[in-house]
Amino acid sequence: MQIIIIGCGKVGSKFAQMMSDEGHDVVIVDSDSGAFKSLGLAFNGLTITGVPIDQDILKQAGIETADILIALTPDDNINIMACQVAKEIFNVPKVLARIFNPEREDVFHQFGLDTICPTNVTVDVIKSFVFEDKDVTKFNIGSNLISFKREKVQEKYEGKRISSIKLKSGLFVFGIIRNGTFNFAYPSLRLNKDDTLLISEKID
């Protein structure tokens, strides 16, 4: 799959590394060339420095043949504009914008844009998995239904990195609950025996 990621912050860089490790063709765009340092030496995708809503920059990133564009900058407006350009001008089959203002989510959906609001997701996840006794919970993220389930860390993974966990296709570790506190997952995070994994799966 050919994936374009807009924004090389914490989320963008981690997602780019993950997709690259899984064998996808990844291009990541950021206006700050220094942001690419967070990708590490193992990243084998392409990096492009430039304004992410500039059509020439997007063409350089391969948008004309891209399968998906995901906008993950800290700016809601840039994320939405990048997705609009991708969808309306270049007919990219799948676009996803991260937004931080949950009040704007419905408006963007009216324009046919899929969004994910980390504010809503994080609050819901913490509420359901830290303070409630639920093993499986489902959330609507954009136009998709995502299932989250809790699993105790298996003994064989104690002391190992999250990246060592083997899951079936379509599942990934979204975060962990450690000592009653939710933490986002990242590949190098080492697991403790009392950790609870928060595993996500797209249902539709």
TrEMBL record:
Residues 1-123 form the RCK N-terminal domain. One of its GO terms (cellular component) is plasma membrane. GO terms for molecular function: potassium ion transmembrane transporter activity. InterPro entries: K_uptake_TrkA, NAD(P)-bd_dom_sf, RCK_C_sf, RCK_N, Trk_Ktr_HKT_K-transport. Keywords: Ion transport, Potassium, Potassium transport, Transport. The keyword RNA-binding does not apply. The keyword Magnesium does not apply. Gene3D superfamilies: NAD(P)-binding Rossmann-like Domain. Pfam families: TrkA_N. It comes from the Bacteria. PANTHER family: POTASSIUM CHANNEL PROTEIN 2-RELATED-RELATED (PTHR43833), TRK SYSTEM POTASSIUM UPTAKE PROTEIN TRKA (PTHR43833:SF8). This is TrkA-N domain protein. It comes from Pseudobacteroides cellulosolvens ATCC 35603 = DSM 2933. The lineage of its organism: Bacteria, Bacillati, Bacillota, Clostridia, Eubacteriales.
